[in-house]
Design goal:
Chain lengths: 342, 139
């Protein structure tokens, strides 16, 4: 009856949480728990459930939590991407302070392939030559020059600022790429633009204007969230429902109502069965009912991870996952090659 | 797809991490073997090849937990654990204790664990590429 691969979820606690597949855990099956890459290759199963331009959902089966978690963490904080780092304000008469404006521009995701830029080595903070670290190899320059004016042709009595004024709202699309060096050729067929063109940066009124230059560099999410290539990268374990006693008729319908739609099905004989455990939210509602609580067991499958990766738009979600795998490998490789000092 | 993907990988590999300051040379401060302090005889405490603690610079739970898992998967290891002694310091401490009849030293165990992580990454990368191809074909 006991399945070691299921984390049990009871009314007010979880049990069987720790994985025990280590040689030091038990002498009996020590041999079968030793790491074997061939065996891992045989067991590992990846299945893509949906893959769109910015969204990906896939199942990663038969891996340990530590591995799944490493990929998740790397996707969020160690896959490099490009974002605004320095903003040089020439004129800003808008209601937003310079630093608030700079912060907002920094958070705009940019459609730049990170492979086209090299790392920008940080020089000593605040020194006079700080500007020289930005070159055409490691920096993308954007400009924002916009002024709000009155629309002289606006109909009388109109109150909509969008009609009344020109440029009353500054959007991310107003950030214009300014090629430096041979960047015009490199980015000829992949324009440097924000991933979404309708992100509101600031609002203006007649007479107000903004004029600034932005330096965008490569960075990682660990330094600042603006460099993270994902909006979210998360996983959950596949829910498991065990109905240990047949339920029919009225009680089958009551059982069905304890779960989200589509989780429990009812067959021709009126018996309840688990149709799609994946849709379950594991709300544990079923355990609150006297008639079900001793005959329905809830759990999650320990080594079945349902990943959800949502890209900000600069890279495709599958590319982000590929990179996370490569980064974990290069981390291990680098550490392996480092001499151990004493 | 695989050809394009692979040629792309070649280019990408170089730009994944910031280039080290001393260009190409491996960092001698990256990993340090800590002394086991013998509380009865501190002066004569020496390094025991089968019970070691390491201090790793600039790594966190991402590598620490995978490494702990991989090392625990080694049949010579009785105990493996990691900790981050202080959240605002960039150090990871890793403890490995082998059985008395161990055929490998802790450093060998550590390097084998790292090699296994690299192999594991290759397998995951390949399988994911296959899965993406399969998904695209079915569409």
């Amino acid at each position: 009856m006991s399945n070691n691969n299921i984390v049990n979820i009871e009314y007010n606690r979880v049990t069987n949480v720790t994985s025990t597949d280590f040689p030091s855990y038990s002498q009996e099956n020590a041999f079968s728990t030793i790491w074997d890459t061939e065996k891992f290759k045989e067991n590992l199963d990846i299945e893509i459930k949906s893959l769109e331009e910015r969204d990906c959902n896939f199942d990663l089966k038969h891996v340990d939590t530590s591995i799944a978690n490493a990929f998740r963490r790397i996707m969020i904080s160690e896959v490099p991407s490009v974002a605004a780092e320095a903003v040089y304000v020439y004129n800003n008469t808008s209601v937003l302070q310079d630093e608030v404006l700079a912060h907002r521009i920094g958070l705009v995701p940019l459609q730049v392939d990170p492979e086209e830029l090299t790392w920008c080595e940080s020089t000593a903070e605040g020194d006079e030559g700080a500007e020289s670290k930005y070159t055409d190899k490691n920096t993308i320059v954007l400009t924002l020059d916009i002024a709000c004016t009155r629309n002289l042709n606006a109909p009388k009595g109109c109150t909509d600022p969008k009609i009344l004024y020109h440029n009353s709202s500054v959007y991310s699309r107003d950030l214009k790429f300014q090629p430096e060096g041979n960047q015009a050729e490199i980015f000829a067929n992949k324009p440097v633009v924000p991933c979404d063109d309708d992100i509101l940066i600031c609002k203006l009124r007649p007479g107000q204007e903004i004029s600034l230059r932005v330096h965008c560099i490569l960075g990682v999410g660990a330094d600042h969230a603006k460099f993270s290539p994902v909006s979210t990268a998360s996983y959950r374990l596949l829910p498991h429902i065990n109905i240990m006693k047949p339920f029919g008729g009225e009680s089958a319908i009551r059982l069905q109502k304890c779960f989200p739609e589509g989780v429990i099905g009812i067959d021709e004989e009126g018996k309840a069965f688990v149709k799609d455990a994946r849709k379950d939210t594991v709300s544990r509602e079923v355990l609150r009912h006297e008639e079900f609580k001793s005959s329905v067991k809830l759990g999650r499958i320990r080594d079945h991870f349902i990943f959800n990766v949502e890209s900000t738009g600069a890279m495709t979600p599958e590319e982000i996952f590929f990179k996370s795998v490569r980064i974990l490998k290069s981390k291990a490789e680098y550490l392996k090659n480092c001499p151990i000092s004493q | 797809m695989s050809d394009i993907e692979e040629s792309k990988m070649e280019v990408e590999e170089t730009s994944l991490t910031p280039t080290p300051i001393n260009n190409g040379a491996y960092d001698t401060n990256k990993i340090k073997l800590l002394k086991n302090v013998n509380i009865y005889d501190e002066i004569n405490s020496k390094i025991d090849d089968y019970n070691c603690s390491f201090q790793i610079l600039d790594e966190d739970h991402t590598l620490g937990n995978v490494l702990r898992y991989m090392i625990m998967k080694n049949e010579n290891v009785e105990f493996a654990g990691y900790s981050i002694p202080h959240p605002s310091e960039p150090y990871l401490h890793l403890r490995i204790q082998c059985y008395e009849d161990s055929t490998e030293t802790c450093i060998q165990v550590l390097h084998k664990g790292l090699a296994n992580i690299m192999d594991m990454c290759d397998v995951v990368g390949d399988k994911f590429a296959d899965a993406v191809n399969k998904f695209r074909d079915e569409e």
